[in-house]
Amino acid sequence: MTGRDAATRSHALLEISDLAVAYGGHPVIDGLSWQVGGSGSLVTAVLGPSGCGKSTLLRAVAGLEQPTRGVVRFDGQDLAGVEVHRRDFGVVFQDGQLFGGRSVASNIGYGLRMRRWSRRRIAGRVTELLDVVGLPGYEKRSVDTLSGGQAQRVALARALAPHPRLLLLDEPLAALDRRLRDELAVEISEIVRAAGVPTVVVTHDHAEAATMADEIAVMRDGAMVQVATPSHLWRRPVDEWTAKFLGVTTVVDAQLRAGIADTVLGEIVLDLPDGSRRLGLRPESVEVMGPAGADDSGTGTATVVLVAELPAGPRVRIETAVGEIDAVADESVAIGDRVRIRLVPERVAVIG
Ligand SMILES: Nc1ncnc2c1ncn2[C@@H]1O[C@H](COP(=O)(O)OP(=O)(O)OP(=O)(O)O)[C@@H](O)[C@H]1O
């Protein structure tokens, strides 16, 4: 399967219907239905809070957990009864789970030896993959001497080696520090796209999901609540829980008339039908404009209660009609200033 196939395929690659998985009789996933890859996306993220069942879902797709109900299909084939190693899926876990005490080459070649590839062919594939993951020449190194980031690169190479039909990544960056996570998220995304392997990546970090994936499935309590592109998710979260999980800190009511939404924080142009809506605000959704004055029609007013000078510009906390909220400022303001505020249309989330 190549990226191009993914773009032209009309049916979903992975189809899950009414899936249920339980541990000791306690359901963790109950009635989950989800289709992956039908819209042409190659990398899909499953994003949800800790404990919502993301890893369990991935393990059920890999064949490592037995569903109590439901169907998992891959490319039209029902996977019930298909053993883990016959699914041809590559899996990478949070801590890589490399075989300790062995060399990098031995780890990457593992699945190829199982498939009875010749030594020469394995050696060629290992070298090729070490180039792909940025570790050329590492064949003989013991995996016990690798850094966390290097170990995850080797785990990725091992998963990609047998040309899997699907790659399943379970929080592959969770054990790494922030800077390395950001760097490796971009790298992994580039690597799987270049290889053209459809990928599902589980994460609880929405920046990571947006960096890596074309499509994000938001999961809550064992079910999918919304599946959309990252930009659609930020702008149109399906409900208040999803909006807040995605970084919305304040929700305000709006009355729309002729493309203008009226809120207690001022007016905003929104191309939506007349009626009542709820708007979700993140700090970047609210801009502090300058001193409040005689002509404040259409804008809200607020009082500055805290100022933090961040590299990207001042971040301020302001007292408004809906309580204290965080906002961004173009120019310097001081604690106690009475200021005008503006809602930024493209950075406001419309809920529902
Ligand atoms: N082997 C197991 N036996 C019993 N309960 C389990 C097992 N694995 C997971 N659970 C429970 O199932 C629920 C979902 O766990 P899961 O690991 O799938 O969630 P998650 O969304 O991946 O969480 P996290 O982001 O913290 O890894 C949790 O309440 C967890 O305690």
UniProtKB/TrEMBL annotation:
Keywords assigned by UniProt? Answer: ATP-binding, Cell membrane, Ion transport, Iron, Iron transport, Membrane, Nucleotide-binding, Transport
Q: Which GO terms describe its cellular component?
A: membrane
Which InterPro entries does the record cross-reference, listed alphabetically? Answer: AAA+_ATPase, ABC_SmlMolc_Importer, ABC_transporter-like_ATP-bd, ABC_transporter-like_CS, ABC_transpr_FbpC, Mo/tungstate-bd_C_term_dom, P-loop_NTPase
Q: What class of enzyme is it?
A: translocase
The chain positions of domain ABC transporter read: 14-246
Q: Name one Pfam family in it.
A: ABC_tran
Q: Which domain of life is it from?
A: Bacteria
- Which Gene Ontology terms cover its molecular function? ABC-type ferric iron transporter activity; ABC-type quaternary ammonium compound transporting activity; ATP binding; ATP hydrolysis activity
Keyword GTP-binding (UniProt): no
Q: What EC number(s) does this enzyme carry?
A: 7.6.2.9
* Family annotation (PANTHER family): SPERMIDINE/PUTRESCINE IMPORT ATP-BINDING PROTEIN POTA (PTHR42781), SPERMIDINE_PUTRESCINE IMPORT ATP-BINDING PROTEIN POTA (PTHR42781:SF4)
Protein name (Swiss-Prot/TrEMBL): ABC-type quaternary amine transporter
Q: Which organism is it from?
A: Gordonia namibiensis NBRC 108229
